[in-house]
Design brief:
Largest sheet: 7 strands, mixed
Order of helices and strands: EEEHEEEEHEHEHEHEHEHEHHEHE
Helix content: 25-40%
Number of domains: 2
Low-confidence stretches: none
Distance between the termini: 13 Å
Oligomer: single chain
Bound molecules: NADP nicotinamide-adenine-dinucleotide phosphate
CATH architecture of the largest domain: 3-Layer(aba) Sandwich
CATH superfamily of the largest domain: NAD(P)-binding Rossmann-like Domain
Number of helices: 10
Shape: globular
Length: 325
């Protein structure tokens, strides 16, 4: 089968498309024909060896995938064969991959593989972040930093679906338009020196209740300072490459909370929680409250350049690779 292989932690440009043997499902695993594999900033960190976990070389990147089950290993439910499933694992940038059966969610007919592979991590993070960590309520106002990225777009969709007013912050007009098209009520340019003034204007006298922050750097403290009393700042990631430091007196003065949101860590600590959040994602899709989708689809051979574009801040939304096309 064809697969993208990482032989050294030297970044996306050194990834290679190769022919390797098909994986064999082990105990409790299923083998899937990968129809779609979502890519995120994390994949860029992984192939540079900059992620908190390093896979042994060589490896096939790609963590969130959807496809049809071809075979099952010992102890995995045989009735999964032929079903379309989605799950988080390893080696999704390939024509075939194995997943733990326990990590697989059977997809409803109307939930396309590309949309499922685009949403497992980012929508899981947004649902866990807003519902469980941020206790977002209808009528509250949310600021999404890095709003046109994969994580940001999911945050817009989920918080809007929960009845919030959503202000998107992004660096270019194209990106702000994409965030508005995804459902943000307003969009501001957070690369302007006085961007907090634009934020105050966008708030129209309302308080800022929740900050969704996958970017960090200098933006974090400025956003925290804009919170209303009782506000929650959700720490999601560090796409800017800088980890912000916050003077703790601000939390006291603002009566505001800084909340870390690590969906992956939460799901690893309790597998039942990962499954619950994925079920909640499907439920919200069924209810029509959210509409996950791939923002762009690409062939397997294009995966290295897509990862490079994410690292260079050039992508808009969530890219998905379709290895069978
Ligand atoms: N906590 C969790 O459970 C969880 C889950 C998934 C991902 N994450 C993290 O969330 C972050 C975003 O991931 P993503 O997949 O949404 O990435 P992405 O699609 O590449 O989006 C990141 C956004 O950050 C902004 N940005 C600002 N400075 C940047 C820089 N120097 N380089 C690249 N982007 C920059 C960009 O928007 P502008 O150009 O508009 O500034 C970009 O759209 C990553 O740190 C990732 O590790 C966390």
């Amino acid at each position: 089968m064809r697969a993208i292989r990482c032989h050294a932690f030297t970044g996306p440009n050194d990834l290679r498309l190769e022919d390797i043997p098909d994986p064999v499902p082990g105990t409790g695993q299923v083998l899937i024909a990968v129809e779609a594999c979502g890519l995120g900033f994390v994949d860029g960190l992984l192939v540079q060896g900059k992620y908190q976990v390093k896979d042994p070389l060589p490896f096939t990147p790609g963590g969130e995938m959807a496809g049809r089950v071809l075979a099952v290993g010992e102890g995995a439910p045989g009735d999964l064969v032929g079903k379309r499933v989605a799950g988080i694992g390893k080696g999704g940038l390939a024509e075939k991959a194995v997943l733990p059966a326990i990590a697989c969610a059977v997809l409803p007919e109307k939930f396309e593989s590309a949309a499922a592979a685009a949403s497992l991590i980012n929508y899981g993070t947004a649902i866990y972040g807003f519902e469980d960590c941020g206790a977002l309520k209808a009528g509250e106002t949310v600021l999404v930093l890095g709003a046109s990225g994969g994580v940001g777009m999911a945050a817009i969709d989920v918080s809007r679906g929960m009845g919030a007013t959503v202000i998107a912050a992004a660096s270019s007009e194209d990106k702000r338009q994409a965030a508005l098209a995804r459902g943000a009520h307003k969009a501001i340019d957070y690369t302007e020196a006085d961007w907090r003034k634009a934020l105050t204007e966008a708030l129209e006298g309302k308080g800022l209740d929740v900050v969704y922050d996958p970017v960090s750097g200098a933006w974090s403290e400025a956003a925290f300072r804009s919170l209303a009393p009782g506000g929650r700042h959700l720490v999601i990631g560090f796409a800017s490459g800088e980890i912000a430091k916050l003077p703790l007196n601000l939390a006291l003065l603002k009566r505001a909370s800084l909340v870390g949101v690590d969906w992956g860590g939460h799901a690893r600590a309790d597998a039942k929680e990962g499954a619950r959040i994925t079920r909640r994602l499907m439920e919200l899709v069924e209810l029509g409250k959210i509409s996950p989708r791939a923002d762009s689809v690409h062939a397997l051979a294009e995966a290295p350049e897509v990862i490079a574009a994410m690292l260079a801040r050039k992508m808009i939304g969530k890219p998905v690779i379709q290895p069978q096309v």
